[in-house]
Structure to design on (298 residues):
């Protein structure tokens, strides 16, 4: 019995010694950074030290925006909306969404105004014999897009009707004049210098504006902002502000990632009018597929 008691005491002592050694093992703390948006990149401004990785934290600290609102394509610069015609367009920001509402009434002269309107002018570019019937009047166009739009898994075809809203307030249409009917040179000859004409739903643009003295508000062979398309990406003129020249890295929709006059050094995805003739001497505003997810323009 004496030997059994001694054996038990020795065993207990060994266990205590092992436990004591374990307790003395040093804890090597690591700095972990909060990953609020779950993209695997941590916020360098929010961190904690711990021996093991805390939930919601990562070892990386290179996330420039950990709010969950950023995207690989960047964020639409809010200053771009300062270029929109405030008499026709209202822009509101709500969290990660932007809502653009427009009356569709442009702020430039046109032969499509009623002759009693102060903005009426005789045709400068338009062939009077090819002008479509109707006069510019008030409409209603509303679209809500994300502040940080992303490219979709697959591009989307545009449909008839408004596919975007121009800085003037008038809607942007694609390259079709009707169901599966492409614009013809004959129809385009009736467009005003803004590249627009009347249709069943009102005044709208199909083409780039013309280089005439009357054109002081619309983009022609330059880098000016044209408007925003229904997938949330901005569209600019044929030239790129980042290079002051025609961009050479455009994708099949005329888009690329670069800075613009609205973003400082920040780069984001946007479209450009593609620098090529569509028909005759006319250059189309947008006749490709949308790279983002289209949002309904109501």
């Amino acid at each position: 019995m004496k030997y059994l008691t001694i054996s038990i005491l020795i065993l207990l002592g060994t266990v205590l010694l092992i436990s004591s050694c374990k307790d003395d093992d040093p804890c090597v703390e690591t700095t972990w950074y909060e990953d609020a948006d779950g993209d695997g990149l941590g916020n360098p401004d929010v961190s904690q030290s711990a021996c093991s990785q805390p939930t919601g934290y990562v070892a990386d600290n290179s996330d420039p925006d950990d709010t969950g609102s950023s995207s690989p394509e960047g964020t639409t610069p809010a200053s771009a909306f300062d270029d929109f015609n405030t008499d026709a367009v209202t822009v509101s920001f709500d969290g990660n969404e932007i809502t653009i509402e427009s009356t569709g009434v442009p702020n430039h002269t046109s032969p499509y105004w009623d002759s009693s309107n102060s903005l009426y002018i005789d045709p400068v570019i338009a062939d009077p014999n090819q002008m479509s019937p109707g006069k510019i009047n008030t409409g209603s166009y509303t679209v809500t897009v994300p502040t940080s739009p992303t490219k979709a898994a697959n591009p989307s075809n545009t449909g008839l009707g408004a596919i975007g809203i121009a800085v003037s307030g008038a809607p942007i249409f694609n390259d079709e004049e009707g169901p599966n009917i492409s614009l013809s040179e004959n129809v385009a000859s009736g467009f005003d210098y803004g590249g627009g004409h009347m249709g069943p739903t009102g005044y709208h643009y199909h083409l780039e504006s013309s280089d005439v003295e009357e054109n002081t508000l619309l983009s022609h062979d330059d880098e000016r902002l044209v408007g925003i398309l229904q997938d949330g990406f901005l569209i600019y003129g044929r030239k790129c502000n980042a290079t002051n020249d025609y961009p050479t890295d455009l994708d099949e929709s005329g888009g690329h990632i670069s800075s613009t006059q609205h973003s400082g050094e920040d780069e984001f995805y946007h479209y450009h009018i593609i620098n090529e003739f569509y028909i005759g001497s006319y250059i189309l505003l947008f006749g490709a597929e949308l790279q983002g997810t289209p949002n309904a323009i109501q």
In short: Residues 1-23 have pLDDT under 50 and may be disordered.
